[in-house]
Design goal:
This protein is an alpha+beta fold and about 160 residues long. It has one domain: Zincin-like. The protein has 4 helices and 3 strands. Strand 2 and strand 3 form a beta hairpin.
């Protein structure tokens, strides 16, 4: 997003959601299957069945983000974005925990009206079984050369493979 300092807020460039996705076609098939599995197994299917989940090559310090929005007066989730490095070998636990973490933000926004890592989000995170901290101390495997495209598609959890 490019912001021109001299322009009025209404004229500034606004980000478009979902943002750019660096996923391969196989990864684009993997992400919704993983999301649906986690929605059913951790959130009792309460989250929207279709929600944009994408991979981002732009994250340097974060593992994921949930973008809340309001459309026609209703709370919506514009997207969940995950750091593409989470797809690398050795990041399985962090990939699942990050997606569940972001889904807890979605549930908090949609059902509790909360934002951030407050008490209502921590309740959703505990229910879903992810870490209840804003940032994990666990290191993730990262690419040495960020220009190298991540093509790996990790295996789905056993329950997700059976349901697919």
């Amino acid at each position: 997003m490019r912001i021109w300092p001299g322009l009025a807020p209404a004229l500034r460039a606004q980000p478009v959601y979902p943002g750019p996705c660096c996923a391969t076609p196989d990864q684009k098939r993997y992400l919704p299957r993983l999301y649906l599995y986690l929605n059913d197994s951790r959130f009792d299917g309460r989250l929207p069945r279709t929600l944009p989940v994408r991979l981002s090559n732009r994250f340097r310090t974060r593992l994921g983000q949930m973008v809340p929005g309001i459309v026609a007066g209703r709370r919506v989730v514009l997207e969940i974005a995950l750091n593409v490095d989470l797809m690398l070998q050795g990041n399985g636990r962090e990939r699942l925990d990050t997606l569940v973490h972001e889904m807890a933000h979605a549930a908090d926004w949609l059902f509790s009206g909360g934002e951030g890592h407050g008490p209502s989000w921590r309740l959703w995170a505990r229910r879903a079984g992810c870490q209840t901290v804003a940032c994990t101390a666990a290191p993730i495997v990262q690419r040495v050369d960020r220009s190298v495209r991540v093509r790996r598609v990790p295996p789905l959890p056993l329950g997700a493979r059976e349901a697919a």
